[in-house]
Amino acid sequence: MQSKDPSYDGLLKLGEFLRESVLSLDQPATQDFGHHGNLSAVLDQVAVENPWFTRESCMHALRYWGQMLSEANLSTWLEPYESPAPSAKTIALILAGNVPLVGFHDLLSVLLTGNRALVKCASNDRILLPFLTEKLAEFEPSTGQRIVITDGRLASYDAVIATGSNNTSRYFEYYFSKKPHIIRKNRHGAAILEGNESDTDLNGLAEDVFRYFGMGCRSTSKLFVPEGYDFDGLFEAFYSFKDVIHHHKYANNYDYNKAVYLMSGSQMLDNGFLLLKEDASFGSPIGTLFYETYKSSMDLDARLKGTSDQLQCLVAGPWFKGGIPFGKAQWPELSDYADGVDTVEFLLKTSTD
Question: Which parts of the chain fold into alpha helices (H)?
């Protein structure tokens, strides 16, 4: 984009605030957070309302967005696109709530294309994103005037970006059929192991599996391993996340799924905080990681053919074309669009229609 929307500078200031906040909140021994103290209190409130959104999970999301909202990242992302159209449209955003700030990319895209955002947050993620929009309004008041967050019925909008489950997507498709729209469904993350991965690779994979308790659409919920694969090294890498079992909601899911599998006579591997089960499905339940074996690269290619509508990302070593590095599943580039649909291109086209 040759011309920059007024929100651009405000977002850069928000990125600076987040980077400073992460540095400040990572030093809890002082208990003196200065002007970042409000954010610390917000994180406490978030964890009370939604126990899945632990302080650690929220800090990871804040750390990510602090890095993404930089001059280098924003300019590199936006450079290929045409300048925003002068006539702003109102874009309704129906956000998911599976991981903290999961809908911030959509909001960012709307603002930087010169449009207005009508935001409906998920019921279990109603605190953190509104807090950041308030901070953004402090840095750039005109941007704050282009964001409306509502709990009620959506009205007076020109286009829709909605994220939900496979079930809700059918409702969204029907309800928003007369408006330009992007409707997202369930997607999953998977990983391919060749059998000669380094300790660094496996430690990165552990991050991909356990970050956000495995609830993100980019979380690795399925492994493809060669026949005869030895899981000992993988379980050793996973051990650094052993304390996940002390989270009561995670532990409840782990115990429930273990009981179900035992009662059904299913075979599984169990390290005390994660169940590893052979299964053809891509979406494994919380506390469980599915896997499949393959005989050859040709066998693997045949298995993956036609699964692009189920996979959000695929983690693998450099030998596999199209894979992303181990440990980077939750660090997508700004141009890594959900479901492979270019949000910015959609918004620019909508503005000119």
Answer: 7-25, 37-49, 55-68, 71-78, 104-112, 128-139, 141-144, 166-175, 199-210, 232-238, 248-264, 297-304, 343-352
